[in-house]
Design goal:
Blueprint: E1 2-10, E2 16-25, E3 30-34, H1 41-48, E4 56-61, E5 64-65, H2 74-78, E6 81-84, H3 96-105, H4 111-124, H5 140-152, E7 158-162, H6 170-185, E8 189-193, H7 197-201, E9 206-211, E10 214-218
Parallel strand pairs: 3-8, 3-9, 6-7, 7-8
Antiparallel strand pairs: 1-2, 1-4, 4-5, 9-10
Helix pairs in contact: 3-4, 3-5, 4-5
This protein binds adenosine-5'-diphosphate.
Adenosine-5'-diphosphate binds next to helix 1.
Length: about 220
């Protein structure tokens, strides 16, 4: 599903954020990406999301080489990738339903398809029944669940999360991780960046560790 071969990323200011990184994540895997602050976790996710490009090396996502991908094909590839960040980035003036529907409505999907998929996504994250509320009426954990529903509403085969529990207390963080396990069990490949080692230690999944831009551990 994701293959990185000898990746280097140097930012325009000369900072080398990733060095000599190779990895292979198979379809259906759930993998944690960890490492100290500044280790390169976000940079690695941004390369896979096509928000940044590598300085050297090859990346393929869902069988497509990103290097040779024509610009017009990028939106199609992105549809296959759900993304979740530390901040849920919900639109405050829109209901939960409208926030989750957004990836479908911007594509002009049919009302029936939007409605079916939004309800299925809200059901999966345990928020069916709250769809007419506004984000500020929800707790932090619930808001993050809305952002997860929005990320999966397209049913992407790949989900990337960058410090998704960074703003949550330990109990809510564990709930979110269990929700990710549930999504993984439905076949979604997951790559989750987190520096919360105590949380990750409670779960049995492959862990990739970055240190100063290098992959130092894979277990
Ligand atoms: P992490 O997610 O592990 O905290 P990042 O990928 O955000 O690490 O950052 C890795 C390194 O690259 C850090 O030293 C950071 O300061 C640097 N960096 C990140 N983004 C940029 C950027 N746009 N320009 C320059 N340096 C950056």
């Amino acid at each position: 599903m994701i293959k990185l071969s000898n990746i280097y990323k140097k930012y325009p200011n000369g900072h080398e954020a990733l060095r000599h990184v190779s990895m292979h994540i198979k379809k259906g895997e759930m993998v944690f990406l960890t490492g100290h602050s500044g280790a390169g976790k976000s940079t690695l996710l941004k390369l896979i999301m096509l928000l940044e490009s590598a300085t050297r090396g090859q990346i393929s996502v869902a069988g497509k080489e990103l290097e040779n991908l024509p610009k017009r094909k990028i939106p199609y590839l992105r549809r296959n990738i759900g993304v979740i960040f530390q901040d849920p980035y919900l639109m405050p003036e829109r209901t939960i339903y409208e926030n989750v529907a957004l990836p479908l409505t911007v594509r002009g999907a049919r009302y029936q398809d939007v409605d079916r998929n939004v309800r299925a996504a809200l059901d999966l994250v345990g928020l069916l029944g709250k769809e007419q509320r506004y984000p500020q009426a929800l707790s932090g954990g619930e808001q993050q669940r809305v952002s997860i529903a929005r990320a999966i509403v397209n049913r992407p085969p790949l989900l990337l999360a960058d410090e998704p529990t960074g703003n949550l207390d330990p109990e809510l963080s564990a709930d979110i991780m269990h929700l990710f396990e549930k999504l993984n069990q439905t076949g979604t490949t997951m790559l989750i960046a987190s520096h919360d080692l105590s949380l990750l230690a409670t779960m049995q999944h492959r862990m990739l560790t970055l240190k100063q831009g290098e992959l130092v551990h894979d277990s």
